[in-house]
Design a protein that fits this description.
CATH architecture of the largest domain in chain A: Alpha-Beta Complex
CATH superfamily of the largest domain in chain A: Fumarylacetoacetase-like, C-terminal domain
Helix content of chain A: 10-25%
Number of domains of chain A: 2
Number of helices of chain A: 8
CATH class of the largest domain in chain A: Alpha Beta
Largest interface: A-B, 67 and 68 residues
Distance between the termini of chain A: 28 Å
Oligomer: homodimer
Largest sheet of chain A: 8 strands, mixed
Shape of chain A: globular
């Protein structure tokens, strides 16, 4: 699953902030001509430092971050310190220009969970999909509602997203055809580094010991397929065709200076979901479609925080493994909505793009780019890795009449 | 995740059929004192043939079947033929008595999907959980309804199942406490051997090229937790604490002589879900609780067949990977129900066990054993690997008031 290097972010809105020299996100890259030698690297401005040459540790000469992540928090911290020392001491001669690298999947996804933790998104979606009822169901106030997605179809930024076929109701008949309502949701994902033990729930206070880093996520959704299939067991094929993840994983440690308050939770949570200190993150997203910014929600608006999500998903004794990915659900705030479902009222009120065209849902060829800037309390800013996908047309499916 | 060897099936009902000498299921085992040397073996009657010593191929000296399964159908067939030749030619001196082996997880589960493909189960559950409505939703007739489960908590037969905590409504209040409605469902699982390509759906005719074998599955369910959480995104923590799988994987080829007709599908499916030939399997299950047989459903009653499940789950272009597991959902037929939800009407009509005690749902210490016999058209019979779990009491959870 190789993709072109998109370190420079490509087209899009006005976010001109880079990684800088201190954020140091991790990724897996190849250089052309040596695709059989994927290595772990860190991004330094617009360059990549090859950790496989810097450290004499086989975990950095692998096609994934899983082995390094599994070493645990002390190793993450000391590695980061060594990288900073090396850069201060002249390791710049080891830097590879990012445009010479081909980014790959940064880690092998173990279990993938997608939450639904934005009050605004849940409210907007409930109003659109279940008009006349309370948009927020009773359970939503008590726990971060979520479900398991398909880990085998999480793809790295830049991978084309083929318009999926599926079953849905069209003109009163059930058909199998390419989706007519292809949506995408802007999300933030958290990556588990350390595995836990089956039967032992994690507390919210253990979050930083287990979570390695942060990625951006595009959660592609076939709304017509999802609407037909989802009762009573939840989303399945309406989501499982592709989920895009950024090639760069930002260490959680780098986001520590961007921690901020999150919304007050009322009713108060039960004790096992309480957190000490602020666990919002001042991360500002920007999703663009063919170069037009269509949404710029703030991640600190999320009602349920990441430590609560991790505590909830292990509260029944479920273990986590290195490479588990859990995503926030659509990030929508009071002003900005992170999905076309919300932005266009399920396609009824199309958006106008800068080129004058309209979109209810995504067309073939559409180029979706999710970017984000982290705002630290000291004024420092740096970006997260981009998540980008271009919609490829549905493929003819052998033997399927409806597909032709 | 080591467990005691349960090759002989332990206590239970009247199924006295063994593996025999021709079925040849695969598993991963250790011998005591050499737990660092897991090997792939096949069961021959009550013994195990060590394939790591028989074949000069590293795929058999690994702690999982994944590498062998990924070799594909031609390799599966030739390996099976070589094993039969070796046994005919005197390999019996290489056999290890099963009681000297400790069975392990047979493969690393990639993605885990659980379907809901029994018409009787869907009808029974719908009547109990949604009285006064049509128990079967419209989508059910058009596709095998399913969802993604947690692959990281699939455990091998014999692993204790700890009663999970979770949030549910009790006396009008939302509490976090050990589940009061611990259920278990009898299921059959299919194991993907070969991976497919993202974007390329598999047809029902490709089933035997991709599916390596069959396991028995116990799908543990906290019904109170599930009831509180499942709208609108489906089951999550009510299921994700544990799913038990048999240690032995029966090759699909061994079940070929047991293929039989499955129920007529009306309305007819759309073209991409049509199958050639009979794709039911004459597999007769028997679930016992503390030695009392509580259900003996026939697997050929399932409305949706396994080739249809595989075609459906890839129909949106989702790929499969070696080690993907998809389970049937509760096997209930016209006479027998494969879950306590159905057997006790959600606990309202307790079952009486042979020791005189009653069960609405599972008590701590309860011993659940799922066994199955494959009936071939020529009269041959052999069993599948057992799936067994004993309920361990809920553990105190640090810092959680409700848990104490």
């Amino acid at each position: 699953m190789l993709v072109e290097a998109v370190l420079d972010g490509g087209s899009g809105g006005g976010l001109e902030v880079g990684f800088g020299r201190d954020a140091l996100p991790y990724g897996v890259f190849c250089v052309p001509g040596r695709f059989d030698e994927p290595r772990v690297g860190v991004a330094v401005d617009d360059a990549i430092l090859d950790l496989g040459s810097l450290f004499d540790d086989p975990v950095f000469r692998q096609p994934s971050l899983n082995a390094f992540m599994a070493q645990g928090r002390a190793s993450w911290a000391s590695t980061r310190q060594h990288i900073k020392s090396a850069l201060a001491g002249g390791a710049h001669e080891r830097l590879i220009a990012a445009e010479h690298a081909v980014m790959q999947m940064p880690f092998e996804v173990a279990d993938f969970v997608d939450f639904n933790s934005s009050l605004q998104h849940a409210t907007n979606a409930g109003r659109i999909l279940r008009p006349g009822t309370d948009p927020i169901r009773p359970n939503w106030w008590h726990l971060p509602v979520g479900y398991h997605g398909r880990s085998g179809t999480v793809v790295v930024s830049g991978t084309p997203v083929t318009r999926p076929h599926g079953q849905f109701v069209n003109a009163g008949a059930v058909v199998f055809a390419p989706t007519q309502r292809l949506d995408v949701e802007a999300e933030v994902g958290f990556v588990v580094g350390c595995g836990s033990t089956l039967g032992d729930p994690l507390t919210t206070a253990q979050f930083s010991d287990y979570v390695f880093g942060v990625v951006l996520v595009l959660d592609w959704s076939a709304r017509d397929v999802q609407a037909f299939e989802y009762l009573p067991l939840g989303p399945f094929l309406g989501k499982s065709f592709a989920t895009t993840m950024s090639a760069w994983v930002m260490p959680l440690e780098a986001l520590d200076p961007a921690r901020t308050v999150s919304p007050t939770q009322d009713p108060p949570t039960l004790e096992h979901l309480r957190v000490d200190g602020p666990w919002g993150f001042d991360v500002r997203l920007e999703m663009s479609l063919n170069g037009t910014v269509i949404s710029a929600p703030h991640f600190d608006s999320m009602y349920w925080t990441a430590p609560q999500q991790l505590a909830h998903l292990t509260s029944n004794g479920a273990r986590v493994r290195p490479g588990d990915l859990f995503a926030s659900g659509t990030v929508s705030d009071e002003h900005e909505s992170g999905s076309l479902l919300e932005l266009t009222s399920d396609g009824a009120k199309p958006l106008q793009l800068a080129d004058g065209s309209n979109r209810g849902y995504l067309d073939d060829g559409d180029d979706v780019l999710l970017r984000a800037v982290v705002h630290c309390f000291d004024g420092t800013r740096f970006r997260l890795g981009d998540a980008r996908g271009v919609v490829a047309p549905a493929r003819p499916v052998a033997g399927l009449d409806d597909a032709r």
